Amino acid sequence: MQASVLSATIVGVEAALVEVQADVTSGLPCFTIVGLGDAAVLEARDRVRSALRHSGFEFPMARVVVNLAPAPLRKHGTGFDLAIALGLLCATGQVPRSAAEGCLAVGELALDGTVRPIPGMLAHALAAQASGLRLMTAAAAENHLIGVSGITLVPLADLSSLRNGVRAMTMTQSDLAGSSSLPGPDLADVHGHASAKRALEIAAAGGHNVLFSGPPGSGKTMLARCLPALLRPLDQTERLETALVYSVAGLDERPALGGVRPFRAPHHTCSVAGLTGGGSPPRPGEVSLSHNGVLFLDELPEFGPAALQALRQPLEDGALTLVRAEGRVRYPARFALLAAMNPCPCGFAGDTGKSCSCTPQKIANYQARVGGPLLDRIDLWTRIDRVDPAGLVGRSAPGETTARVVARVGGAHAFAAEHGRPPSAALSGTELLRACALDEKGRRQVEGTARALRLSGRAVTRLLRVARTVADLEQHARVRTEHVAEATAFRLLESL
Amino acid sequence: MIPPGAWQLLRGDSGYPECLERTPRPPAVLYGVGDPGLLVPGLGVVGARKATPYGLACARRFAGWAAAAGVVIVSGAAIGCDLEAHTAALDADGSSVAVLGCGADVDYPACASKVLASLRRCGAVVSEMPWGSPPHRRAFVPRNRIIAGLSAAVLIVEARLPSGTFTTADLAADAGREVLAVPGSIHAPESLGPNRLIRQGATSITDISELADELRALGIAVEPPGAPGRIPSGRDPLLRALRADPMRVDDLARTFDLDIVTATRRIAALEQAGEVVRYPDARYGVPVRETQRRYNQSVGEENPRVP
What we know:
- The complex is a heterodimer.
- By secondary structure, chain A is α/β, with parallel strands linked by helices.
- Chain A has three domains: 2-170, Ribosomal Protein S5, domain 2 (2-Layer Sandwich), CATH 3.30.230; 187-396, P-loop containing nucleotide triphosphate hydrolases (Rossmann fold); 405-488, no CATH class.
- Chain A contains 20 helices and 19 strands.
- The termini of chain A are far apart.
- A nine-stranded mixed sheet of chain B has the order 1-2-6-5-4-3-7-8-9, with helices on both faces. Chain B has a two-stranded antiparallel ribbon with strand order 10-11.
- In chain B, helix 3 links the parallel strand 4 and strand 5.
């Protein structure tokens, strides 16, 4: 007696279909699972046996072999429990075979037969949708799929409900309640730092990489925390992309489904695998968790050199490929980098009030830790200085509120979209030149600037990208001389 | 191992510099590489290691002119003003003597090795430490008395308080040498040293003609300089403010009550026009372009990524 049920396993951020074949034949009673399952898959034997018994079914006193096909693909996790149980029930005729037809069964079983959701529910749901299948899973999985439309679910509270026949339901889109941006300080609450705020505004509008450098206590981190509130909500495609990463990482995907752009701030002790992803089974790292959002690296030179250099591929390609013995996985990682650092080990190099106690060599070594290739990808650089204490106690007029800046950022996005352009950070080469639409005067100015400031080719590209965003903020189709001028003020100098 | 072209002078030898003999504590032996004929009273040019673009520009201007006029430049080999003075002298095809706190054949600091190699070839590098002595922190302050001793006058470009540069001025005064100082902004910690020296009676040097007068008064024959250079003046109040005192955009916007975008654009336009430059600490100030690269070195980056 043989039966097969479809299930899936997570590879990267996608669910790969796996056929669970159950064969019950006469012979000495035993229960084997073959097909490269990890320890969690093999433990399914005990969970399935108990769950069947406690749900009023019978576990066959026969030779039971379960094969997970395709056999060469490594499978991991507890999601096969449901499919294995269902396969056994169909093979032994305790449940009609029609129950499993057109279904993708994914779920973990508790010993009492309760069906539990597993990490990556969203990936499984999308795989089912793509193959025209219904997703048979835990009833509780519904919570992980709010805001995703067009998915047909077969919710199961526990195994025993299979006996009464199952009902499919289609998810309709319902918006998640709550704010579509992360909480953070309001720009108006941050005193001074006018150019840093402007840099944040440009970064939010164009998706640029930003570096703040300045002495400790000057407000770099607080300014960085203002950025999430400036970012526009995720659009429909982005929501799914980002939520998928959170889903397979076993994290809460609801903020992403609700449109909140991710803002990740890993500590500087973060390992390379923690940043880029890795482990067995591979899990997405911080760069992928900030997909379509912002990765904030505070105290940049304190990160391990290997971790910093590992950022280069995702910054360039918008994705990260991990190659391991068991195969290669690709995680999306298109993020804007926001970094903050002290200019030297003591932190006070270049400070007007306090003198720096580091030797020139020490400063050079400290700054060299970040490395040229990474700095090459920084579009906006701002020096953050300690503010005058007189202003802090409230003698100066408050600056602009976050809401006003958000309105301008939104306008810039709408303007770029109207012209069929992605955010300027994604532009390069001829695309960028076309987008800038420089007139003769502008071209001469850019050439003159590049010569006067001795800019490299890459630096000119960065300059034009920023200038394009500045022009977007003012809703100018053509990049004008003043936009280029402003962009030069944010370029990275040789020394921080 | 004694390097080729090396020499050593004992006190009482005929070649032992007479100006060094006339100091409170002349070194017993002077080890050197290069031209021993350069050990005549010269112009000491010393300044801070963490110099500002202003200090480097001054070191370059005065040392460059004096070297071209035939005066031997004497200095240490530290990063910052010292190296700037030597490079200016070498660029002007003049003569320069470096006094080290380690053996005269040792390249210290490492970033000075190119300049030291040039000096050994067409200048001189001297030390009271035996050949091959490694650098030791206690050797550097006594070394300053040799710099003072080999100089008819010592020009202090920039010095914080307290600092090694400032002690060189004290040692020069003890040896009865003229102390000259370049005044600077009262806001700049790097100019505290020279400004205080001027108050204590050092001669202030603001122009090449003043330096020429001082050197002539000391009996050093120099070619008369041309007409003093015109200090450019501008109408733009932003530009005038930045010339007087380098500032960051935020401070400038606050001072002139401009919004940040306007201030940024105006200052960037001034930079593109070459009127001001952005210093590595993000302040904008007078352009000292030829010294910009070396300033970057002095604040830390050996190899600027953007040439």
